[in-house]
Amino acid sequence: MRILSVTSEAFPLVKTGGLADVAGALPLALERQGIEVRTFLPGYPGVMAKLDGAGQSVHEFHSLLGARARILSAKVAGLDLLVLDAPELFDRPFGPYGGPDGDYDDNWRRFAAFAKAAAEVAAGAIPGFRPDLVHAHDWQAGLVPAYLRYYGIPTPSILTIHNLAFQGYFPAHVFSWLDLPPQAFALDGVEYYGGVGFLKAGLANATALTTVSPTYAEEIATPGGGMGLDGLIGTRAGALTGIVNGIDDRAWDPATDPLLAARFCADDVSGRAANRAAAEKAFHLTADDTPLFVVISRLTGQKGIDLLVEASDELVAQGARLAVLGTGDPTLEAAFLGLAADHPGRIGARIGYDEALAHVMQGGADAILIPSRFEPCGLTQLCGLRYGCIPVVSRVGGLADTVIDANIAAINAGVATGVQFQPVDAGGLRHGIRRALTLMRQPDTWAMIQRQAMAADVSWDRSARLYANLYASLLPEGSDA
């Protein structure tokens, strides 16, 4: 079976969020299922640098939505890559989607060209490679199923929704530049509230839809969680599957992790003490045995970080400490820097992202706080489980699907792995923190929860099997793929 994975980012080549982790790890897990995956990426400067001149040109476009481009083939970090080398579109000095002044004005053109090129690959543009199925990720690849449909390319497609909040909506005038027939600007095509909706186009035209947890699949079909697309998603309910994400359990393995101050395993967690000390030093926290909570997150309203601002004073009053690593809303960044100044030694904040420090925090803290208002899947709670850093999470989306709440029944059954809370407001978060602190005061119970957390299967293996089965179900009968 040959799959073309179309994604705007993939770890370790380019990353702004969880999409990159999924797009980087899933192909490797599918490979273990005997499935060949080629990952199609834009040629951002960072991606081109990692190719280091080793990419082989396998196809050229004289005019791809007006830009000269070519496709390079290479293998990097175990990923079999196809890279769209189009300097006019992707050779930008800042991030993949924008810079200090906001999103790039021509993102519609950049990712339409990317999607059109992917459709041409599906049609056989590259000698010796014609995929059996195209797997498109998020709005940046949302036009791929539309190009397949309107160009008469019979290759089946899947669109995975990683976060419905990001939809790729652009004014109607861009349609004339997309190289799509006039009939595509319609309710069952790319038209969306009078403009062009990239994600909507994928939802309407993909053969099948997936999202990154079963609970999120239910939430996005409701007015409260559908963000204007619940009606369309409801009509496609039979084509929608929720498959929970995994993490790369080789990169996130406390027994072998080179980024940790000390390694450890479920049978001997003594190495967590060295990581705790390293985290305390990094955040200028008082070194003591009081509970240590951490946050590793984008600092945004979606992530519920404003709720933590409200709850932080009580967290300190309860005798706990807090370390926050992240970047995002300037108001929230300033709020945590202010809290750190108000509570020296008890709250620390680092604005930015540091991969090594994130590993150390997971490896040394007692608990990780994830108070998201909505969360398609989430990955930091999976890392927390793997490292015995107990997740305290809102009961939404993938958080509800991956963390088993430490209620009395779960504790007695020996299956609890974390703490869930509702409602998703400051009061609910405070209650979740108090529950976690109560459990920490019961060392045997806390140790049991930690063991159960570290034993949880957070790998891609089960999810890769589900994707493999879904792929197979979409191929024509009699296919030898």
From TrEMBL:
EC annotation? 2.4.1.21
**PANTHER family reported for this sequence:** ALPHA AMYLASE DOMAIN-CONTAINING PROTEIN, GRANULE-BOUND STARCH SYNTHASE 1, CHLOROPLASTIC/AMYLOPLASTIC
The species this protein belongs to is: Amaricoccus macauensis
Question: What name goes with this protein?
Answer: Glycogen synthase
Tell me yes or no: is Transcription among this UniProt entry's keywords. Answer: no
Q: Which domain of life is it from?
A: Bacteria
The gene behind this protein is: glgA
Judged by the first EC level, this protein's enzyme class is: transferase
Q: Which GO terms describe its molecular function?
A: alpha-1,4-glucan glucosyltransferase (ADP-glucose donor) activity; alpha-1,4-glucan glucosyltransferase (UDP-glucose donor) activity
GO terms classed as biological process = glycogen biosynthetic process
What family is this protein classified in? Answer: Belongs to the glycosyltransferase 1 family. Bacterial/plant glycogen synthase subfamily.
The Starch synthase catalytic domain sits at: 2-233
The signal peptide, as residue positions, is none
Any idea which UniProt keywords this protein has?
Glycogen biosynthesis, Glycosyltransferase, Transferase
Classification via InterPro entries: Glyco_trans_1, GS/SS, Starch_synth_cat_dom
Give, as in the UniProt entry, the pathway in which the protein acts.
Glycan biosynthesis; glycogen biosynthesis
Which positions bind ADP-alpha-D-glucose?
K15
* GO cellular component term of the entry, any: cytosol
Lineage summary: Bacteria, Pseudomonadati, Pseudomonadota, Alphaproteobacteria, Rhodobacterales
**Its biological purpose:** Synthesizes alpha-1,4-glucan chains using ADP-glucose.
The residues covered by the Glycosyl transferase family domain are: 281-439
What catalytic activity does the UniProt entry give for this protein? [(1->4)-alpha-D-glucosyl](n) + ADP-alpha-D-glucose = [(1->4)-alpha-D-glucosyl](n+1) + ADP + H(+)
